[in-house]
Amino acid sequence: MPEELPIDDRVKKAWDDLHAVETAVRQAEEELQRATVTAVSADGKVELTVGAQGELTAIEFPGNGHRTMTGAELSASVLDAARRARAGMARQVMETFDPLAGMLSGGPGAEGLTVDWNKIFGGALEGCDEPAESAAMSRLRDEIDED
Fold first, then answer.
1. Structural domains in the chain plus CATH codes
2. Strand, coil or helix: 134
3. Alpha carbon distance 92, 94 (integer Å)
4. Over the stretch 121-135, which tens digit does the pLDDT of each residue have?
5. What's this model's pTM, rounded to 2 decimal places?
6. C-alpha triplet 99, 101, 106: angle, nearest 5°
7. Three-state SS at 38
8. Which residues contact 75 (CB under 8 A, 6 or more apart)?
Protein backbone atom coordinates (compact mmCIF):
# COMPACT_ATOMS: atom_id res chain seq x y z
CA MET A 1 0.00 0.00 0.00
CA PRO A 2 1.58 3.31 -0.98
CA GLU A 3 2.57 5.41 2.03
CA GLU A 4 1.55 8.65 0.27
CA LEU A 5 -2.15 7.81 0.60
CA PRO A 6 -3.95 9.43 3.51
CA ILE A 7 -4.48 7.16 6.51
CA ASP A 8 -8.24 7.06 5.98
CA ASP A 9 -7.76 5.76 2.43
CA ARG A 10 -5.25 3.15 3.59
CA VAL A 11 -7.61 1.95 6.32
CA LYS A 12 -10.51 1.78 3.85
CA LYS A 13 -8.39 -0.21 1.39
CA ALA A 14 -7.30 -2.59 4.15
CA TRP A 15 -10.94 -3.16 5.18
CA ASP A 16 -11.97 -3.68 1.55
CA ASP A 17 -9.17 -6.23 1.11
CA LEU A 18 -10.18 -8.02 4.31
CA HIS A 19 -13.81 -8.23 3.19
CA ALA A 20 -12.73 -9.58 -0.20
CA VAL A 21 -10.72 -12.33 1.50
CA GLU A 22 -13.59 -13.15 3.89
CA THR A 23 -15.98 -13.45 0.94
CA ALA A 24 -13.55 -15.65 -0.98
CA VAL A 25 -13.05 -17.92 2.05
CA ARG A 26 -16.80 -18.24 2.57
CA GLN A 27 -17.31 -19.14 -1.10
CA ALA A 28 -14.47 -21.70 -0.99
CA GLU A 29 -15.92 -23.30 2.15
CA GLU A 30 -19.38 -23.54 0.57
CA GLU A 31 -17.90 -25.06 -2.59
CA LEU A 32 -15.96 -27.65 -0.62
CA GLN A 33 -18.94 -28.62 1.55
CA ARG A 34 -20.53 -30.05 -1.61
CA ALA A 35 -17.34 -31.54 -3.02
CA THR A 36 -16.69 -35.24 -3.48
CA VAL A 37 -13.84 -37.18 -5.05
CA THR A 38 -14.13 -40.67 -6.47
CA ALA A 39 -11.11 -42.92 -6.98
CA VAL A 40 -10.59 -46.44 -8.24
CA SER A 41 -8.15 -48.90 -6.73
CA ALA A 42 -5.08 -49.84 -8.76
CA ASP A 43 -6.63 -53.21 -9.61
CA GLY A 44 -9.88 -51.53 -10.73
CA LYS A 45 -12.05 -53.63 -8.45
CA VAL A 46 -13.08 -50.96 -5.93
CA GLU A 47 -14.49 -47.48 -6.56
CA LEU A 48 -14.71 -45.28 -3.49
CA THR A 49 -16.05 -41.75 -2.96
CA VAL A 50 -15.12 -39.40 -0.13
CA GLY A 51 -16.53 -36.08 0.99
CA ALA A 52 -14.71 -32.86 1.76
CA GLN A 53 -13.44 -34.07 5.13
CA GLY A 54 -12.30 -37.43 3.79
CA GLU A 55 -15.42 -39.23 5.00
CA LEU A 56 -16.52 -42.27 3.02
CA THR A 57 -19.74 -41.51 1.12
CA ALA A 58 -19.95 -44.41 -1.36
CA ILE A 59 -18.25 -47.65 -2.28
CA GLU A 60 -18.86 -49.75 -5.38
CA PHE A 61 -17.38 -52.87 -6.88
CA PRO A 62 -17.32 -52.43 -10.67
CA GLY A 63 -17.75 -55.67 -12.57
CA ASN A 64 -18.17 -57.68 -9.36
CA GLY A 65 -14.47 -58.61 -9.50
CA HIS A 66 -14.42 -58.50 -5.72
CA ARG A 67 -16.28 -61.83 -5.62
CA THR A 68 -13.13 -63.74 -6.53
CA MET A 69 -10.89 -61.86 -4.10
CA THR A 70 -9.72 -63.05 -0.71
CA GLY A 71 -10.56 -60.92 2.28
CA ALA A 72 -7.00 -59.58 2.40
CA GLU A 73 -7.06 -58.68 -1.30
CA LEU A 74 -10.41 -56.91 -0.98
CA SER A 75 -9.23 -55.07 2.11
CA ALA A 76 -6.08 -53.92 0.30
CA SER A 77 -8.15 -52.71 -2.68
CA VAL A 78 -10.54 -50.78 -0.45
CA LEU A 79 -7.66 -49.14 1.41
CA ASP A 80 -5.93 -48.29 -1.86
CA ALA A 81 -9.06 -46.66 -3.29
CA ALA A 82 -9.62 -44.76 -0.02
CA ARG A 83 -6.02 -43.47 0.00
CA ARG A 84 -6.36 -42.32 -3.61
CA ALA A 85 -9.70 -40.61 -2.96
CA ARG A 86 -8.44 -38.85 0.17
CA ALA A 87 -5.34 -37.67 -1.67
CA GLY A 88 -7.55 -36.37 -4.48
CA MET A 89 -9.69 -34.47 -1.99
CA ALA A 90 -6.60 -33.05 -0.31
CA ARG A 91 -5.38 -31.79 -3.69
CA GLN A 92 -8.80 -30.25 -4.37
CA VAL A 93 -8.77 -28.45 -1.01
CA MET A 94 -5.25 -27.19 -1.71
CA GLU A 95 -6.24 -25.92 -5.16
CA THR A 96 -9.26 -24.16 -3.68
CA PHE A 97 -7.50 -22.43 -0.79
CA ASP A 98 -4.05 -21.79 -2.25
CA PRO A 99 -5.13 -18.62 -4.12
CA LEU A 100 -6.51 -17.21 -0.86
CA ALA A 101 -3.04 -17.30 0.67
CA GLY A 102 -1.93 -15.25 -2.33
CA MET A 103 -4.64 -12.69 -1.61
CA LEU A 104 -3.27 -12.24 1.90
CA SER A 105 0.41 -12.21 0.97
CA GLY A 106 0.38 -8.56 -0.15
CA GLY A 107 -1.06 -7.22 3.08
CA PRO A 108 0.73 -5.82 6.09
CA GLY A 109 2.02 -8.45 8.50
CA ALA A 110 1.80 -11.19 5.86
CA GLU A 111 5.54 -11.58 5.43
CA GLY A 112 6.41 -15.27 5.39
CA LEU A 113 2.75 -16.33 5.18
CA THR A 114 2.72 -19.89 3.93
CA VAL A 115 0.39 -22.84 4.28
CA ASP A 116 1.93 -26.09 5.50
CA TRP A 117 -0.26 -28.56 3.61
CA ASN A 118 1.62 -31.54 5.04
CA LYS A 119 0.79 -30.36 8.55
CA ILE A 120 -2.87 -30.03 7.60
CA PHE A 121 -3.27 -33.30 5.71
CA GLY A 122 -0.61 -35.45 7.33
CA GLY A 123 0.03 -38.64 5.40
CA ALA A 124 -2.91 -38.16 3.02
CA LEU A 125 -0.59 -36.53 0.49
CA GLU A 126 2.24 -39.04 0.71
CA GLY A 127 2.83 -40.74 -2.62
CA CYS A 128 -0.44 -39.50 -4.08
CA ASP A 129 1.16 -38.50 -7.36
CA GLU A 130 2.99 -41.75 -8.02
CA PRO A 131 1.22 -44.75 -9.49
CA ALA A 132 3.35 -46.97 -7.25
CA GLU A 133 1.56 -49.60 -5.23
CA SER A 134 0.08 -48.56 -1.93
CA ALA A 135 1.39 -49.67 1.44
CA ALA A 136 -1.69 -51.89 1.79
CA MET A 137 -0.95 -53.62 -1.52
CA SER A 138 2.69 -54.01 -0.50
CA ARG A 139 1.68 -55.60 2.82
CA LEU A 140 -0.69 -57.92 0.95
CA ARG A 141 2.09 -58.97 -1.40
CA ASP A 142 4.37 -59.64 1.60
CA GLU A 143 1.61 -61.68 3.24
CA ILE A 144 1.13 -63.77 0.10
CA ASP A 145 4.88 -64.32 -0.24
CA GLU A 146 5.08 -65.53 3.36
CA ASP A 147 2.43 -68.22 2.72
1. 7-146 (3.30.1310.10)
2. coil
3. 5
4. 666 666 555 333 444
5. 0.65
6. 105
7. strand
8. 136, 140
